[in-house]
Every structure is written in structure tokens, then in C-alpha cells.
Specification:
- The protein is 48% helix and 14% strand.
- The chain is an alpha/beta fold and 322 residues long.
- The protein has one domain (36-320): Homocysteine-binding-like domain (TIM Barrel, Alpha-Beta Barrel).
- Strand 4, helix 9 and strand 5 (201-206) form a beta-alpha-beta unit.
- Bound molecules: zinc ion.
- Zinc ion (ZN) is lined by residues 179, 239, 266, 304-305.
Length: 322
């Protein structure tokens, strides 16, 4: 018990020391505020990429398409962009016959995001950060199946290794484990991240239902406490059923953790008409939601499914006028 606690303190100290020169990111994790980008997947869909395709593979096949979206978010004021690697793990890639390309796809995702940050940064005089997006594996978890848990951890570790490859300035600046529906799965993802890239800051976000609870039945408070114990650097909610549910859950998480909070709601649940998904939360409403999320204690705010660079731009203006 004592050893475990010492280990946590030691690893936290190491991480702090590693990032001492990076003031803006340090500031965020000390309670400052930053704006993250919005959706990638729903924009790709909107731009005609069939949902049957592997969106992560676009990093290899259509890097310009991915780069264009990153660039639009950076122009809109995003201070952190997420790599197009949400499904870049062995389990999801295997469904597309791409099991052997985990490293290649994640490396390409990081390279594209880095190039956009450098290029747009030069143009605008800004300095944004790249977060490595890590989504769920897409499997049903059986908490007592140790072999499944081991495979999950090793799949997360493989993805984290690629996202972090090259270290400072080459690999990602931080990691975002997102859209988690199960604390068991989140635990494996955090364990892998801590093991493989202990120096990278780690944001972990759960998805919640209308009632503000996680989809595995855990309360928002229990999730925040558990993710804190597991070693996240910031915790929160993303996607979910729109800004209102995320705002409710965030308020409850605030009571259960001292860590910075992250909130990246979707633009509501979509109406599907003729195979097309329409999201109803407008950029103006999202900007008002961003204000509420910051007031509720969020440090990092962004968007998820259905949000666009127009939403990010409105949120940027809201932040500047605060
Ligand atoms: Zn989403």
C-alpha cells in the first residue's frame, strides 16, 4: 500500500519536472483554461467519406483531407487539436484488415497534426498543442476475464507507444482518452498510458447519459474519483447527449475530484434524415454552453460529434469576451 502511494507520488513528480518549461500546458493543468477543437468523424462523414471506411486509415490515404480539418480548427482558435486516431487501436483496425498498421496509422496521425500546428502557427503567430486521441476498443468488457483485460491493455499500450514516439516536439504533447463508457476499460487505458508514456499529461473523459451517469451505471462522482485514483491528470465528459448532460455531470464530478475538468459535448443527439445526421446545437448555443462549462469549473472545453470549426470559432469569441 505504502509502495503504491509512493509510486504515484514519484511518477507525478517526474511528470511535473518534465513539463516545467511548457508554461501554457502547465498552466492548464494547474487550473488555467484552454480551448480544444471539435469533431473530426462527423465532418469527414459530412464531406462525403462513407461511414463504412476506416477513418483512421485516412491518415495514410488522404492526409490532405485530415489536414484541412485540423487547419480549419486552428484558424477558428483551437489551442489544442486531437489527432485523427480515435479508432487507431488493434481491435478496431482489425475489422478493416489493418491490424498490422497500428503504428503507421498513429504515426501518420501525429505527423499531420504536427505539420498543421507548425504551419498555421507560423501564419497566425500561435502555438497550439497536439493531443493524441484514444477512443474505446469497441468490445464488450467482461471485468473477470483477465485474458481480455490483458489484451485490452496491450492494445492501448501499442497505440500510446506510437502516439508518443519521438518524444518532445515529435510525438504528441498530451494524451486524451475519450468517449469511455466503462470504468474497467478506462482503467486499462490509463494503466497502459502510465506504463508506456509516464511523462505525458493525461486527460480522461467518460460519456454520460441523460441522467448524467456513465453508461456502465457508475455515477459521475464515482467515475471522477476512480479516474483520479487511477492517475489521470484531468477528468471529465465528452460526447454524451449534448451540452446539458455534460454540464450536469461536470458539476457532479467537481464535488469528487481536485483535478482540472475537461468537457467536450456533442452538438446534441442527431436527427437522422435520409441517412444524414443533423445536429441541432448551433455555434451560438455552443458558445453559451462553453461559458457555462467554464463557469462550472471546466479547464479544457471543446466539442465532439456534430460540432464544426464554426462552433469552435463561436467558443473562441466567447472566451475572448469573457
Ligand atoms: Zn462524439
Amino acid at each position: 500500500m505504502t509502495c503504491a502511494i509512493s509510486g504515484v507520488i514519484l511518477s507525478a513528480t517526474k511528470r511535473t519536472a518534465a513539463f516545467v518549461a511548457d508554461n501554457r500546458l502547465d498552466n492548464l493543468f494547474a487550473g488555467g483554461r484552454m480551448l480544444c477543437d471539435g469533431a473530426m468523424g462527423t465532418i469527414l462523414l459530412d464531406r462525403g467519406i462513407s461511414m463504412n471506411r476506416c477513418y483512421d486509415e485516412l491518415n495514410l490515404l488522404q492526409p490532405a483531407t485530415v489536414a484541412a480539418i485540423h487547419s480549419e480548427y486552428l484558424h477558428a482558435g483551437a489551442e489544442i487539436i486531437e489527432t485523427n486516431t480515435f479508432g487507431g487501436n488493434a481491435f478496431r483496425l482489425e475489422r478493416h484488415g489493418l491490424r498490422g498498421k497500428v503504428r503507421e496509422i498513429n504515426l501518420a496521425g501525429v505527423r499531420i497534426a504536427r505539420q498543421c500546428v507548425a504551419q498555421i502557427g507560423k501564419e497566425l503567430g500561435t502555438n497550439a498543442y497536439v493531443a493524441g486521441a484514444i477512443g474505446p476498443l469497441g468490445i464488450l468488457f467482461e471485468p473477470r476475464d483477465q485474458s481480455q483485460l490483458d489484451k485490452a491493455r496491450s492494445a492501448f499500450a501499442e497505440q500510446v507507444r506510437a502516439l508518443a514516439e519521438g518524444g518532445h516536439g515529435v510525438g504528441v504533447d498530451l494524451l486524451m482518452i475519450e468517449t469511455m463508457t466503462s470504468l474497467v476499460e478506462a482503467s486499462e487505458a490509463i494503466g497502459a498510458a502510465r506504463q508506456v508514456a509516464p511523462r505525458l499529461r493525461l486527460v480522461v473523459m467518460m460519456t454520460v447519459g441523460e441522467d448524467g451517469n456513465c453508461l456502465d451505471g457508475s455515477s459521475a462522482e464515482a467515475a471522477a474519483a476512480r479516474l483520479t485514483d487511477l492517475g489521470a491528470d484531468a477528468v471529465g465528459c465528452n460526447c454524451s447527449t449534448g451540452p446539458a448532460s455534460v454540464l450536469r455531470a461536470l458539476g457532479r464530478m467537481r464535488t469528487a475530484t481536485h483535478l482540472p475538468l475537461a468537457a467536450m459535448p456533442n452538438a446534441g443527439l442527431p436527427n437522422v434524415v435520409d441517412g444524414r445526421a443533423d445536429y441541432f446545437v448551433s455555434p451560438t448555443e455552443m458558445a453559451s454552453c462553453a461559458r457555462s462549462l467554464f463557469q462550472a469549473g471546466a479547464s479544457l472545453v471543446g466539442g465532439c460529434c456534430g460540432t464544426t470549426p464554426a462552433h469552435t470559432q463561436a467558443m473562441t469569441l466567447a472566451m475572448r469576451n469573457r
